[in-house]
Amino acid sequence: MAVGFGFPTRAHYIFGKRYLKYSDICKIPGLFRRMNWRLSIQQRFPLLPPVVLNAVRDMSNFLYRILIKTKKRNKPEGLDIKLYDSFDGRFDEFWRGSKGNTE
What we know:
Largest sheet: none
Number of helices: 4
Structural class: mainly alpha
Shape: extended
Radius of gyration: 21 Å
Helix content: 40-55%
Number of strands: 0
């Protein structure tokens, strides 16, 4: 019995199911949380100028920051949550070390 694991595109998935007789072992749930409304607005209104899209981005970032800071969360003892606007070189080093040999 041959087993393959992957995340095919929709076209590859349909082709595999129809012609290669793929069968699903299980469904993997996907979790999603929108953290910025700029892309959603841009997709719905593609002709909006960048200044409006940037204002939407800044406003949604501000509102999410307020939501995160004011919302009561059950966090484990000793856990510290910090908000960051950007990552420094340590994140790049972490990524290079953990991504594997895909190059």
